[in-house]
Automatic annotation (TrEMBL):
This is TIR domain, NB-ARC domain containing. It holds the Pfam family WHD_plant_disease. InterPro entries: WHD_plant. Residues 11-126 form the Plant disease resistance WDH domain.
Length: 178
């Protein structure tokens, strides 16, 4: 437990976009299925998690990040999605999977449980929104089922994520009616 707390503190307290993104990836990865997750999906979901802190600092970071993305090459942006995922692998919170081409990671179940208890439901809602917005649901069917259980509940467990009615209809239409 202390090792997990230390790893989360290292990710949260160190300054840098890569470490903050890795911390958000840990938060979001807790709510995915226990299957390999593509780094680009994890990055997209992690970017949907709202951050806490100074709003002026967030605004300047976004401007810097958008400027860097417009100047950098596409291959460098692709590598920047892998870097936070590989940082999680180096810390031992996840392992790299060779399921498909690209960077896929799988979180350890203990790390998932720790992140669920530590961070609450904000990351769960971001996970559902990220799964809803991504394309090709057949490639990520395990994670689609995990998001469906978050929205609708399972057996006697209540739903954890409350969507607006229109978002629920869109979720059902796009994801569950294949």
């Amino acid at each position: 437990m202390k090792v997990l707390s230390f790893c989360a503190a290292v990710l949260h307290q160190t300054k840098g976009v890569r470490n903050l993104l890795a911390f958000r990836m840990l938060q979001a990865g807790a709510w995915f299925a226990p299957a390999p997750i593509p780094a680009n999906l994890l990055t997209a979901v992690a970017n949907n998690i709202p951050s806490t802190g100074n709003k002026l600092r967030k605004w300047t970071k976004r401007l810097k990040l958008n400027f860097c993305r417009s100047v950098c090459f596409a291959s460098q942006i692709w590598m920047s999605e892998e870097d936070p995922a590989l940082l999680l692998v180096k810390l031992g919170l996840a392992r790299k999977s060779n399921r498909e081409p690209g960077c896929w990671i799988q979180f350890h179940p203990i790390a998932q449980t720790f992140a669920k208890r530590k961070d609450g439901l904000v990351a769960a809602k971001a996970t559902v929104q990220g799964i809803r917005k991504t394309g090709n649901p057949l490639a990520k069917s395990d994670h689609l089922w995990a998001s469906a259980f978050l929205v609708f509940g399972f057996k006697s467990e209540p739903p954890l994520v409350q969507l607006k009615p229109i978002d629920t209809v869109l979720f059902i239409r796009k994801q569950l009616c294949l």
